[in-house]
Write a structure and sequence with these properties.
Largest sheet: 7 strands, parallel
Strand order of the largest sheet: 1-2-3-4-5-6-7
Strand content: 15-25%
CATH class: Alpha Beta
Order of helices and strands: EHEHEHEHEHEHEHH
CATH architecture: Alpha-Beta Barrel
Radius of gyration: 16 Å
Number of strands: 7
Mean pLDDT: 95
CATH topology: TIM Barrel
Length: 202
């Protein structure tokens, strides 16, 4: 995947409690770490409770750790824990999660991840209602940058493909998670190149 041109490895962690699926844990993250070189590992925790597993993923080689506000009893404490463990913190918003959590947290975040599907399974169709939400978050990020000079990534995950990535970028996203669109292709490099071409023409 890295040889094909990916900028980051997005690592989805599901616990069969917060979401109806069970995937991979810190051991797998630690196993892939030696193979990714300087490419960042972007860990998306879909688990509840979330705090206990954060140090394990930091130790396993995560660079970015993001979590859902619904999965934390004390969101500020969870953000602080991620940073204390040496990782960049991110907050994840499901399609129906209100953005009001950002009123209290945006100054502490390095990444905001907007889900454009409901989390739990790959291969879902992009939810169009995510587009105005992306634009609203972009406005919040730009206002925060004007105030503090901090740069916050705006990542979108779910149903991202070559035929919609340009619209997602036009709405304000700068980081894109593609799973089935790449892994389902015979040629990973070609799939990534097609997305980059679509972005260049947005």
């Amino acid at each position: 995947m890295i040889a094909a041109g990916a900028d980051m490895i997005h690592f989805d962690v599901m616990d069969n409690h917060y979401v109806p699926n069970l995937t991979i844990g810190p051991m797998v993250c630690a196993a892939i770490k030696p193979h990714v070189g300087q490419t960042p590992i972007d860990v998306h925790l879909m688990v509840k409770p979330v705090d206990a597993i954060i140090p394990e993923f930091a130790k396993a080689g995560a660079n970015i750790i993001s979590f859902h506000p619904e999965a934390s009893e004390h969101i500020d404490r969870t953000i602080a824990l991620i940073r204390e463990c040496g990782c960049k913190p991110g907050l994840v918003f499901n399609p129906a999660t209100p953005l009001s959590y950002l009123d209290y947290t945006i100054d502490k975040l390095d990444l905001i991840l907007l889900m454009s599907v409901n989390p739990g399974f790959g291969g879902q169709k992009f939810i169009e209602a995510a587009l105005p939400k992306i634009t609203e978050v972009r406005e919040r990020i730009d206002a925060e940058r004007a105030k503090s000079g901090r740069n916050i990534m705006l990542e979108v995950d779910g149903g991202i493909k070559g035929d919609n990535i340009a619209r997602v970028a036009a709405a304000g996203a700068d980081t894109f998670v593609a799973g089935s669109a790449i892994y389902g292709a015979k040629d990973y490099a070609k799939a990534i190149t097609e997305m980059r071409t679509a972005l260049a023409g947005k």
